[in-house]
Amino acid sequence: MFGPLICKPGSSKSNKTGSWRVERRPKFLQKNCIGCRMCLVICPEVCIEGEGKNTYKFDPDFCKGCGNCAAVCPKQDIEMVKEEN
Amino acid sequence: MKEFVEGSHAVAEIVRLCKPGVISAYPITPQTHIVEDLAQFVSDGKLAAQAVNVESEHSAASVVLGASATGVRSYTATSSQGLFYMFEVLFNISGLRLPVVMTCAARAVSAPINIWNDHQDAVSLRDSGWIQLHAEDIQEAVDLHLIAYKLAENKSVMLPVMVCMDGFILTHGIETVDIPEQAQVDSFLPPYVAPYKLDPAAPITMGPLVDPDYYMETRYAMQETHKQVLELIPGITAEFAKTFGRQYNGLVEGYHIEDAERVIVAIGSVCGTVKEVIDEFRAKGKKIGLLKVSCLRPFPAQQIYDALKGAAKVAVIDRALSIGSTAPLASEVKAAFFGKKKAPSVISSFVVGLGGRDITKDSIREVVKLLNGRERNGEFIDLKPELLKESYE
């Protein structure tokens, strides 16, 4: 007898970690962004996209609200704001 | 072909005949000769395996885990501290349902450091999910490796098997051993075809994070598979007998047990000594028998119950402890009788031969003598009270 041990790769895509988010989410101001990609690189859920200045955004389906992107942004162009209900 | 060989060499020979693709181990007494011989076979071109040198047992176990996950028959061997250094990886191998076979040259554990034989290392792994088979002599150790691969790779089993043989007594002892021909081994043990494997061409994920919604089922499945293994082993040993001509029960084996009033239950090489003592008693008309437990995991509780239910008194010999509680084998033998109407009036527990202390015929005679009296719980045989003191001073 076997239990659930094996699955197809990429299963983390079906696990919408955005449901874990409580109270706070990032807000990308897109004003002073220099396109350094630090937010994209540090995101543990790899849910930030963008190419060039003031283009970065996050995917709320996967963002856990950790705030790393806001903390790392050298231009303070990402704010953590209260979750909209 | 019959050869007069050292136990470790005989095991290396049979592992070579099983054609593993990957071997990885780290030297530790008394297991070392096995992997030394295997490394020699590889370098001499007698075995087309990859022998992976590693810096520790933790890595050795990890290498065979990875190799087995890619669908390759894999082998490792260790003892004592080495087995314990593998500990977490061993649970991963069984949890991932990988049919690795390992030889455990059973040895005492530290501290104090002791390289000699008892069963504490193997027995401490009894909750790990590994199937655990124990050999009485070198021939059985050889044969159990064939049975181990056959069992492990059975598509409905897919669990690792630990073949335990008493360190030094069997690994360094020399016996006449029948080493089978390659053609016989090949007919009994066809090449391993993994039902699932890591392959970049057809990717799967093995052992992903399993949250509370899924974890219990993985453990339940292992528990159920162990129950199935109890039913599968007799079929495999029957097939073994047909191919190689040697008969094993695989779970428990009786010696003069049919009419025995008093029965000794034991594991491993001590069974040979017990048989000699039984022969002496039988010559004097005393109805004493032996029940050898060949398979510690899964534990053949029903078979033990059936074999012992007619006996008046039972003595269980343990060569390991569960410190703070009843000795491991005794505890499980007793549990097999819980709630049953037919049971021996006495199930006494004896601890013998820890850290390589010789188990002589006198040791066994002492067990038989004490079995006549009140029930004993973990009575140490051949203890030296003069070495014990109440304080550090």
The percent range for helix content of chain B is: 25-40%
> Counting H and I runs of at least 4 residues, what is the number of helices of chain A?
2
Major sheet of chain A: order of its strands?
Answer: 2-5
Examine the coordinates and then state which fold CATH places here, giving the name of the CATH topology of the domain at 32-80 in chain A.
Alpha-Beta Plaits
The ordered H/E elements of chain B are EHEHEHEHHEHEHEEHEHEEHEEHEHEHE
**Biggest sheet record of chain A:** 2 strands, antiparallel
Distance between the termini of chain A: 45 Å
Per CATH, the architecture of the domain at 32-80 in chain A is: 2-Layer Sandwich
Give the CATH class of the largest domain in chain B: Alpha Beta
Uncertain segments of chain A are none
Instruction: Give the beta-strand count of chain A.
Output: 5
Instruction: Report the biggest beta sheet of chain B as strand number plus sense, adding barrel if it closes.
Output: 7 strands, mixed
> How many individual domains of chain B?
2
Structural class of chain B, please? alpha/beta
Pair with the biggest interface? A-B, 10 and 23 residues
Number of H- or I-type helical stretches of chain B: 13
The mean pLDDT of chain B is: 97
Shape of chain A: elongated
Walkthrough of the structure:
Chain A contains two helices and five strands, in the order ββαββαβ. In chain A, a hairpin with a 7-residue loop joins strand 3 and strand 4 (57-58). A two-stranded antiparallel sheet of chain A has the order 2-5. The mean pLDDT of chain A is 93. Chain A is elongated, with a radius of gyration of 15 Å. Chain A has 85 residues and is α+β, with helices and mostly antiparallel strands. Chain A has helices spanning 38-42, 68-72, and strands spanning 6-7, 24-28, 48-49, 57-58, 78-82. Helix content of chain A is 12%, strand content 19%. Chain A has a domain at 32-80: 2-Layer Sandwich (Alpha-Beta Plaits), CATH 3.30.70.20. Chain B is α/β, with parallel strands linked by helices and 393 residues long. Chain B has two domains: 2-244, 3-Layer(aba) Sandwich (Rossmann fold); 252-387, Rossmann fold (3-Layer(aba) Sandwich). Chain B is 38% helix and 18% strand. Chain B contains 13 helices and 16 strands. Chain B has helices spanning 7-17, 32-43, 57-69, 80-85, 87-95, 120-123, 138-152, 182-188, 215-244, 270-283, 301-308, 328-335, 361-371, and strands spanning 2-6, 22-24, 50-52, 74-78, 101-106, 131-134, 161-166, 174-178, 205-206, 252-255, 262-266, 288-293, 295-297, 313-318, 346-351, 379-380. A seven-stranded mixed sheet of chain B has the order 3-2-4-5-7-6-13, with helices on both faces. In chain B, strand 2 (22-24), helix 2 and strand 3 form a beta-alpha-beta unit. Chain B is globular, with a radius of gyration of 21 Å. The relative contact order of chain B is 0.11. The model of chain B has no long low-confidence stretch (mean pLDDT 97). The chains are: A alpha+beta (85), B alpha/beta (393).
